[in-house]
Amino acid sequence: MSAPHVVLRPLEAGDRDRLLAWRNLPEIARWMYSDHEIRAEEHARWFEGALADARRRYWIIEADGRPVGLANLYDLTPEHARSSWAYYLADPSTRGQGIGAFVEYWVIEHVFGELGLNKLWCEVLIGNEAVWRLHEGFGFQREALFRRHVCKDGVPTDVVGLGLLASDWAATRMASRERLVGKGFDLPA
Known about the structure:
Distance between the termini: 19 Å
Number of domains: 1
CATH superfamily: Gcn5-related N-acetyltransferase (GNAT)
Number of helices: 6
Number of strands: 7
CATH topology: Aminopeptidase
Radius of gyration: 16 Å
Strand order of the largest sheet: 1-2-3-4-5-7-6
Largest sheet: 7 strands, mixed
Strand content: 25-35%
């Protein structure tokens, strides 16, 4: 079985327009906290801030050499040994191939390995069950249910808060790695 060749490369200035187009796709926007169409000026301010902020890291997800999504760390807080994270796959043709699972594994390894942090956490809209279940499959624990936390299309919506500790990852890492290797992904030992 052959999986797509997936890499995460650092965000570059040339990615700005691509990210704006992706972020405004209805299938991406439906899972974000904001509902409005993001205009070029607003995006330009966000993009410049994203590149300059030491508490954020962004990577373009590439599959077989094509940009297909975005992964990021934010609220990166070394003094508390934690970070928050999120990702999305913008290209619908990539879904169901294990790319999201690969990205999850890669980010977790980066956070607990290279960065040496103790906690990775995220927030997921309650209706995005596939994503919060994916996180749980990697050892994330549900730590919160933020009731009526954001409004989507004018409707108050709950948000699931999930956290993964380095010790949780130590207990689930090998099983997660074996699942990905079984799908054909090439991972370092």
